[in-house]
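Hi! If you just cloned this repository, the fastest way to understand the data is to look at a raw example. We've pasted two of them here, unedited. The first protein comes first, obviously.
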Amino acid sequence: MQIIDEFIEVPESLKLLSDFYPGKRIMMFDIETTGLSAFQSFIYIIGVNEIVDGKWRIRQYFNDDGMSEPEIIEAFEKALPDYDAVIEFNGDKFDFPFVEKRMGQIQMKTGRQIENNHNRIQKIDLMKLIFPYKFALGLPNIKQKTIERYLGIHREDKYNGGELISIYLDYLSDNDSRKKHLVLQHNRDDMVGMISLLPILSIHSVAKGSTTVPALSTKEKGSKLYLCLSGQLKQAVPETIEAFAYHCDLKASGKSICLEVPLEKKTLLYFTPGGSGKVADYEKTSLFAPGLSTWVNQLMSYKESGRNKECFYEVNDAFLGNGEALMNYMGQMCGLIMEDRGKNR
């Protein structure tokens, strides 16, 4: 086994970690394998990003002789308890299961048992975070390079993963330093690329509606009156986001976010939240905004019938003067809009 360390200048995007995960010790990781099947192939590089003495280090555990896989896995697993969380890209689906299966294969074939520490650490999969918003962001897929291009990052690999497998296997035969450099550089670029994906956290915060208490205003568009909720995000989004669903408009640019919700004047039957669904003995006419009614029980919920799933909030002083309720409502509607697949557009 060979360990290669490189210290790099701390990128601006790394500051997002302290904003979204304050006080947590975080590392990132990525693996390179000789194939997709953990039963027919093995790991030849484990790359790790981590903070060491206030500096950002890329560490690569390199299976330099084709036989050091147990050592690089064990070194990686021993490093994990020093951290609270690990950030990866598609690691929940591929990297971690692959490592675990290889640990099982190593124990079965050699009797060597490697302690599994990755099941004890919080995992933050950037692919999982951005997947629900693929439609809203206009992404054709959620491959790492596609997301990098969306974020304005362009890098060219001379070789793809499949080509690098043969280069690595050739290196084991001829010990060519150029081939070694190529496989290590590819993993190193992936690790730097993962740092560049951290603005995904800002996009995720838009979908969660994580803002200050929104400011209120109204505007007319055509014959409709809209309630406008405007707030500030913790961090700026990397690209302007514009999404529309449920007749609502959502726009985030920089640190600003605005939600425009159409208001309707309707006479609806009154039902108590979580009640039996039986009609009360009166009706009420007021202004309403679309949404769901699960988060603030003290506010009245109106439905056209007990079985109708379309709920409304009454736009009254109890709602408009409740900062927490406004934040919850904005967060809920932002999530619905960002995760919409097009049927409500």
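Ok, and the second one:
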Amino acid sequence: MAKKTVATLQSSSKRLTKAIKMVKSPKTGAYTFVEGIMPPEYVNDWLAKK
């Protein structure tokens, strides 16, 4: 499974990070991309969960 932090976004006074991970569908076996925008300290937890 691929995991990558793509960009660090800054909006006004908050720092946000956009993270993308590939998730394999158990039904079809196809991969889909899931994106999330969150504070940098939550990225590792988000990538670790299934």
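That's it. A detail worth noticing about the second one: DSSP finds one helix and three strands in the chain.
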